[in-house]
Amino acid sequence: MIVGDWIGRRAQLTPNKVALVDTLNGNRPITYREWSRAVNRTARFLQERLGVRKGDRVAVLAHNCVEYLDIWFALGRIGGILQNLNWRLTPYELEGLLADAAPVALIYGSEFVAQVNALRGRVPSVRHSVALGEPAAPDDVHFTEREAFSDAPLPEVDLDWEDPWVICYTGGTTGLPKGAVLTHRAITANAVNTVVSWGLTPDDVAILNAPLFHTGGLNVFTAPLVYIGGTSIVCKGFDPDQVFDLIRDAGVTVFFGVPTMFIMLQQHPRWEEADFSHLKIVISGGAPCPMPVFEKFWERGVDFKTGYGLTEAGPNTFWLPPEDVRRKPGSVGFPLFHIDVRVVREDGTECGPDEVGELVIRGPHVCAGYWNNPEATAQTIRDGWLHTGDLARRDAEGYYYIVGRLKDMIISGGENVYPAEVESVLHAHPAVAEAALIGVPDPKWGEVGRAIVALRPGAQVTAEELLAFCRERLAGYKVPKSVVFVDALPKTGAGKVDKQRLKEEYGRC
Length: 509
Hints:
- The chain has 509 residues and is of the alpha/beta class.
- It is built from 15 helices and 26 strands.
- Strands 7-6-5-3-4-8-9 form a seven-stranded mixed beta sheet.
- The longest helix has 18 residues, at 32-49.
- The protein is globular, with a radius of gyration of 23 Å.
């Protein structure tokens, strides 16, 4: 049974179709036949040079590049497991993750020589350090050694759908991040769900600039496009100018980003001149998206919508039909083809229409649990349902809406305040570039909202003016009781606003 040889099978079916465009090397097109040969060489390099066997972990600390994708799919081919490391972490944080997964090899980009040298000798499981570019030490293996290996198809490896393929770490807002075990089943099921529910075709072209250490980079469009035979444009990271260039010149049809990326695009001088008419999917995920971002796209005739997912499930979970985008603003729509979802109360009973509760998910795209953490696995996956920790509601017509994180919800005087709703109003003010709402203790109400706001360049607004703007649009108990102005909001590795850091810095009375 073909389980892990995605690129080899795709090369048989559509050998001359362009699979990747390498923007790091002159926009070089790579066909599925060419990519399959590179993956085969990489797989043999991993096996014969590094000694990687089925079940072994290989850590990668690098920016997006074609070689990163080669490694991912080569590991899938031989039964190895990718540990995709967040390159924004400190050596101390990386050491904890490496100790958790115990990889046999650490492959790194040239930008991370200092981190690799700081880790050297501190992770006993690592037998080989492998440089994609400039080596951190003379004895490190250079990735170019793979060119000496054959590109012929490899012997079959006995793989099962339940074998792990990626250990993808969650955001880790408290303590050590948890490693979600993404099996061949989970990654394949997400691809199937996405292709059949979102309507992807072999003609689709996506910009891959979400980091590959995040499930969004791996699985929103990248794996599904391989599955259907589409094309990914590989970019080192998010650069607004590059995005505008590619939308104009490269035939892009689908684009995924987190809200911060879309806000930056809309604040860019090239926003007004950009032509989005040939984009069939523009979708935001990773965090609640403010309504003004939607409206600016809609004014340009783009059916911009929000998606929902998490590392542990897919991440693709819902789809909102284009005809409902403006009729159901903010909705994520309906669950994908092979997914069950419910909105439940604390006692596990199902909520009624428009009643807010926790979103739970069931389906073949759900991870197998957390690496080396049976307690967290048992707490999160119960009776076959993944408990997301996210608050949602389902309206009378069956459309789902994500309200916010259970832990982020503010209870003020007995009333629930959902930060996403307040943040959306704050973003509507013309002076506001970014905004986040956190809860702070209050002797009278127990907890009240505090707005953390970054202004647009050259813009001015007072705290009272901003609160008055909110009072016109929100019930009194939802209006923040204080405002803190900052130069910029801190971000996590995935580009989301770092609420935990904001709480640590500004969450006191």
